[in-house]
Amino acid sequence: MDIHAAVVSSFDNPPRYEPFDLPAPSDADQAVVDVLAVGLHPRVRTGASGSHYTSTGKLPMVPGVDGVGRREDGRLVYFVADDELVRPMGTRTVIDSRHSIPLPDGADVVKIAAAMNPAMSSNAS
Predict the structure, then answer these.
(1) Are the CB atoms for 85 and 27 separated by under 8 Å?
(2) How many CB atoms lie within 10 A of CB 92?
(3) The pTM is what?
(4) Residue 56 confidence (pLDDT)
(5) Of 92, 94, 100, 125, which one has the fewest beta carbons inside 10 Å?
């Protein structure tokens, strides 16, 4: 399935918005979502530059760690990207449904995408 995404083809250059081939879901736990909002966290920037300790160095790649999407049935979900799937900085992506939570209709998708990663990584002591 052809989508458009922020594609990293070289760690020496910023991502470029261009066509990208999105693989089809490979099992019943995976689903295609229309990506509505994605957070641009420090973790995303280090992943896109290849400098994050989890970087495999495999290119091309689509960056991102989480986002908000609309499932094919119209439901909104917040999702965390799976390391084995295309990341969420594209028009569509494949998610592991087990790593998503449903959101209410009318949820502010931009605020949710911006706040979830920092909120989850904060120290609530």
Answers:
(1) no
(2) 19
(3) 0.87
(4) 81
(5) 125
